[in-house]
Amino acid sequence: MQDGIIAFLGFGRRELPLYPNTAAALGDYLRRDDRPSQPPNAPGLLVSTAGSRLLYGNLQITFHRLVGRTGLTSRSILPANRGN
Prior knowledge:
Elements: E1 5-8, E2 14-17, H1 20-31, H2 56-70
């Protein structure tokens, strides 16, 4: 991450601009003493507890479990009666 832009590698390089508060939060995360350690110059920002890059399949499964636990729903699914 540099200058509020994060780069995704894997299927080609993609860059995503970040809001300043998001970039600050990621910077705070990178300075935390309790975050998983990783080898110097490791390309992954978010790493597993073993210090390796996250696998997409495992991340997707965990994300969907967390969404289910919190009761989040898609914004595209609107209730039939929206108070009209």
